[in-house]
Known about the structure:
mainly beta, Immunoglobulin-like, elongated
Amino acid sequence: MRLLEKLMARLELPPEAEGAVRVTLSGQREVRIEHHRGLLAYSQRETEISGGSVRVRIRGDGLLLRAMTAEELLITGTVFGVDIE
């Protein structure tokens, strides 16, 4: 059994939690999204990201995509809200 599988079993997390999108909001100025599946839409007022089975919508003003890797997105600006659908 892999280390991640052992950890998930010990924490009693379901198998589908592995690789699930993780959204971290730092105050009202920064959003970090891990395990994303790509950028769906981008503007200074609204950004939409695929999280696999969910979509993450960030609403704000002056939103700026600061960094994007295969694993993580970093968006800065004034964040009014984050919706997960």
